[in-house]
Every structure is written in structure tokens, then in C-alpha cells.
Predict the structure.
Amino acid sequence: MKFCSECQNMYYIKINGEDANTLVYYCRFCGHEDNEPTDDGVVVLRTEYKKTEQQFSHMINRYIKHDPTLPRITNVKCPNEGCKSNGSTDKSNGSTDKSSSASGGHDSPKGHEPSVIYLRYDDANMKYLYICEHCDTTWKTDDNK
């Protein structure tokens, strides 16, 4: 904090009228202006970003697949071979079709279509996190390469 050299009231900062890239201290009480910067108050705002690998573990919990506001896609295959969306159940004997008709159609074969939630975890590199709704398997965009 800097104070006026004339009346000892607090200085305020404004943009210099002659040069828009410099700041000027001015006093609201007496109107005095000081163009002399101090060594300790030169930086007005500094924002530093660290370029590190984004962590996404805080984005995943056991309730995430029940969130209806998250986007879902059906054209991405789950990498888990045992997932029922990949057809891991034995459909040759028709057990899936019989159970779906007995339960009133709630577990229809259409219910085993891939349903994957996707979340962007790295905006700069457009990296996504995928979560299978059937088996809770999670994978990243880089895992597909």
C-alpha cells in the first residue's frame, strides 16, 4: 500500500492517460499523481498455470453413473471383455431374451447396448475420461491408442 506524498492519504491506481500500458498512483483527496513505481508494488496481477498431468480421480464416485445430466454415448465399446455390453453373456441358449420377457422388458437386449459416460478432464488437449455404465470400468482417451 502506498500513501500520498502531499497529504498522506492512500493512493489509488489508474491507467495512465498518455500510455495505456502503465499505471499511475493518484490521491482521491488532493488529486496528486505519482508516476514513480515502487519495487514492492509493481505487479498488479499475476496468474501462473502449471502444466501438469490432470488428475481425474476426484471426478469419479459410485453415484456418477446415476447422474442424468452427464452426457452418454453408445458408439464406444467398453474395453472390459467381461462387460455385458460386449455380449459376454451366453446368448446362444437365449437366456438373456427369456429373462427380459419374464421381467417385463426391463432387462431387454437393448439394455445391454454400450452406454458410456464421458467427461473432459483436460481442456487444452481435449482428453476425455470414459465410464461404462454396466461394469463401472473407467478409461482415458490415451488408453485407446
Q: What stands out?
A: The mean pLDDT is 75.
